[in-house]
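Retro notes, structure queue

What went well: the backlog is down to a handful. What didn't: a couple of records were mislabeled last round, so from now on we paste the full input next to the output in the thread. Example, using PH domain-containing protein from Olea europaea subsp. europaea:
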Amino acid sequence: MHINRKFVYFGLLDGGQLHRKATWICLQISSFRESKSDERRFYLFTATKTLHLRTNTNKERVAWIHALISTRSLFSLRPLNDNIPLLTRDISVSTERLKERLLEDGIDERLVKDCEQIMLLEFSEIQGQYKVLFEERSNLLDTLRQLEAANIEAEASGINDSEYQLMKQEFSDLSRGKNIEWSTTESPDDVEKQDLEEASDEEETRFFDTNEYFSELTIGCGSLGVDHLDNGARLKNHTNDVNKAEAKNNQFAHRYPQVQRRKRLPDPVEKEKGVSLWSMIKDNIGKDLTRVCLPVYFNEPLSSLEKCFEDFEYSYLLDQAYEHGKAGSSLQRILYVAAFAVSGYASSEGRHCKPFNPLLGETYEADYPDKRVRFFSEKVSHHPTLIACHCEGEGWKFWGDSNLRSKFWGRSIQVDPVGTLTLEFEDGEIFQWNKVTTSIYNLILGNIYCDHHGTMHIQGNRQYSCKLKFKEQSILDRNPHQVHGFVEDVTGKKFATLFGKWDESMYFVNGDGSGKVKDKSDASLLWKKNELPLNLTRYNLTSFAITLNELTPGLKEKLPPTDSRLRPDQRHLENGEYDKANSEKLRLEMRQRMSTKLQENGWKPRWFDRESEKGSFRYVGGYWEARDQGKWDGCPNIFGEISEDLVSSFEGS
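Corresponding output:
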């Protein structure tokens, strides 16, 4: 929000950038009222709309209302007149009275001159600051003149391009000041109803408004602290664990050969052609998405095997969990495990394209020595579709298999993961959990968006377990993507409360969180999402995801013929060769349809095996050893041309 002359300007700020969703309000015809149910909310009424505004604190609300009323009163009495100077460019100061006073008290004249020089030096610095203020005022007056020249109406709901560029720089600094949430309605009659809704919202203590209570945490996280009891010992300040983990990773990376990974995808060779989404959906309502052959337009240049490894972008959280457990802090261990479980969803925001469905026997490896992790995955079943993975880090290993049950529901897609994920530390402590439901909405009309909802139970085999609730987003939800949960022991006693957003960050406080958290010193940062890359494409891949399908120098010669990086349709899509990608995808779909027959004839996965008939798939070992030796016996060229004998066998069965 920005006040100048008789107008008040409201704009949304994101990272210091002014968005075009804005409105001008004439103060002379406006009135204000404080909310009865929220000490930080107030309302601004005009002839045609009501603005609902919320500040960070009650003190800020009082200051804003006072500023609005004062500004309205000032310009109602006297318009701005450039002939009445509010500031002058030059100011001066005299030291004569000070010198006379000091000399009367018998102060040595040399000492008096020193004092005079000190005073003049201080004044010179103040004068410099004053001149800067004068220039800023002059710029503001120029801006006001240009706005008035543009004949901006009092009730205009936006600004044109020239005005937008003119004000953009002025608003870029406001993100470091007071941030205000706001929304508009068409009638002031809704205000009392809004107050009632606010009161009911305050009664719900399960979800914190992280934008309200923790908007400054990312700036001042170094000052955060929390005291907590864990087996009788007080926990120390852990808010800088993220920075420590990153520093440790950087230090560790120097011990290994550095791999230069790409920062962006290749420039597309062809111009992409759009596809009618409705024509695809109407014929497949209620069907299993994994059985539907879609053009590559709906795919991103990654396979589901590679997407599994994307969950390990923040693997340093597991390194931290290992270190805390090693130091005897079991509570801190499960807190970081929970943060890791949530962080895997962060990259899904804005990702509306489907990953490639792997072929039966397709594999993917990821060796990231700078992250101290080795990952391997394989498609172990076609019907039902099952992907098994295994990952090893410093002091921990992770494994699991997943079957994604996907359905079209006309306007949305629902994906229900089936399968248990297991994390085991080298001291024998184990945690297991299942992923929550994912839904993609507005496939036909409106803005497509993704949401994760449901309850995640992280079950430990020792003292602590964790329960996380992913709040389902409603149509009018102004604070989506909320996650709230708690850590409890075997008796059901709550020891810590977690909260945050799956696409931003996670925090924790001590105790059961029965009271609202209003002081940032009561919370500790567990995890924060990495910044997105500068060169975003329509796939909205993160910097980490951009590296997953990359063939770094010398890697292709070491890979088995089953690796996802060698899949031709996926590679053509990444390169922007869309016609070739569609052609190859159709060819590989034929091989995919043969997979069921192969399974019926006794096909077995190469690198994984079931623990029991209904158990999870576990890595049997041998992959990295075969890679070192370059021996890929028993690994067929699944992406090659289909032999005539194989086609005849398939058609005749």
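Agreed that this is the format going forward. Reviewer comment attached to the example: The first strand starts at residue 2 and ends at 4.
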